[in-house]
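Priority: medium. Attachment 1 of 2:
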């Protein structure tokens, strides 16, 4: 039997991954240690926690974090693991509280993670030594990221280089209008690989393919792109491109990117028939007919239309299951029922994600067959190829 190192070395460039990368629990354990727990993952938006004591629980693979606004008004994250004998402390998904009480033996923690009560312990028991463990958390222009490492990648370059594109859409003041979690019974990498390529869009996503131009050849896309670029400035947007992945990633930092792509003519935003679904974001004064792609690290992606943003986060549950969290965000002062309707807002990416789930699960079923053999990537799967090459490099990095 090949070792993991030998398997990585035998991976054919330009071809899909070997079956063991999807099915082997030993490789998954290595992924947890070297990829999943080492990287930043989008956990939501700061507007979800307006008041001290507002919290939510964020789960990835074997880890669970409580994200909470502390008494000093700062957002913090703590391991959802009791310092007594390790029970999960918080069993609610979200809410507002003044304290977290462990359901097992009742140890109590305040919203700053301090242990405040522990029944029947010795007189000399030092509560101050048993606060909840801290989990790394960063807020990047309103977006909340968590990393389950005490030595996470830096985010300074991303914060600096994405400041202008994020300010155009006023990320700081967005709000989450809807959040849905999609369970996908498949290895997590298949979900992210699927998001990275649009080779499948024409065949699997009639709704998306009507309005997005990503899967058409450059020659056909170029005039649409030029039309959007000509219009952009008068709509309040600047033409910016940022790419900091692969060799371009700053040493020791998270990778990131930003670009904007035209929609087909007549489509103003990502909705049924391209009709506006919410008030224009940030400083926008009109629709330029584009959609912006942001990416943050290996798990978190955003698509920003002129009137709303959609964030996609793909995370493993175990080696056989993963989930996709989608956050639909609108400007913070938009009012539900008056300025936007949640069903209209979520229609496109709900229908598209259900279709993606089906193709990912079918892919997963086939990949487990004894007849599965990695096939060659097409030119339209360039990003997916770079992503799996990154995964293989990270698996080798001890
Ligand atoms: S495990 Fe939490 S109080 Fe005992
Ligand atoms: Fe898709």
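Attachment 2 of 2:
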């Amino acid at each position: 039997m090949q070792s993991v190192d030998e398997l990585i070395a035998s991976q054919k460039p330009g071809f899909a991954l070997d079956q063991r990368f999807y099915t082997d629990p030993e490789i998954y354990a290595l992924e947890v240690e070297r990829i999943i727990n080492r990287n930043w993952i989008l956990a939501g938006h700061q507007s979800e926690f307006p008041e001290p004591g507002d919290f939510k629980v964020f789960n990835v693979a074997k880890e669970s974090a409580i994200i909470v606004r502390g008494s000093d008004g700062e957002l913090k994250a703590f391991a959802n693991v009791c310092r007594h004998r390790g029970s999960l402390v918080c069993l609610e998904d979200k809410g507002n509280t003044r304290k977290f009480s462990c359901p097992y033996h009742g140890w109590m923690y305040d919203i700053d993670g301090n242990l405040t009560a522990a029944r029947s312990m010795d007189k000399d028991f030092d509560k101050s030594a048993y606060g909840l463990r801290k989990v790394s958390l960063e807020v990047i222009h309103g977006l909340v990221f968590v990393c389950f490492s005490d030595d996470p990648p830096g985010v300074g370059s991303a914060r600096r280089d994405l400041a202008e594109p994020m300010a155009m859409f006023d990320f700081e003041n967005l709000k989450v209008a809807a959040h849905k979690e999609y369970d996908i019974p498949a290895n997590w990498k298949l979900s992210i690989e699927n998001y990275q390529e649009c080779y499948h869009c024409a065949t699997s996503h009639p709704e998306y393919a009507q309005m997005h131009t990503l899967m058409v050849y450059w020659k056909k896309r170029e005039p649409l792109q030029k039309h959007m670029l000509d219009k952009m400035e008068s709509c309040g947007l600047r033409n910016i491109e940022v790419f900091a992945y692969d060799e371009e990633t700053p040493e020791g930092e998270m990778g990131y990117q930003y670009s904007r792509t035209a929609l087909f003519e007549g489509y103003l935003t990502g909705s049924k028939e391209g009709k506006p679904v919410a008030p224009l974001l940030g400083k926008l004064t009109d629709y330029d007919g584009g959609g912006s792609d942001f990416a943050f690290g290996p798990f978190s992606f955003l698509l920003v239309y002129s009137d709303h943003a959609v964030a996609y986060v793909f995370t493993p549950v175990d080696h056989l299951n993963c989930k996709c969290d989608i956050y639909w965000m609108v400007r913070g002062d938009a009012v539900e029922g008056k300025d936007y309707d949640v069903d209209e807002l979520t229609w496109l990416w709900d229908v598209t994600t259900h279709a993606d789930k089906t193709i990912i699960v079918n892919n997963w079923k086939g990949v487990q067959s004894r007849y599965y053999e990695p096939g060659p990537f097409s030119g339209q799967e360039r990003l997916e190829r770079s992503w799996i090459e990154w995964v293989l490099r990270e698996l080798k990095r001890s």
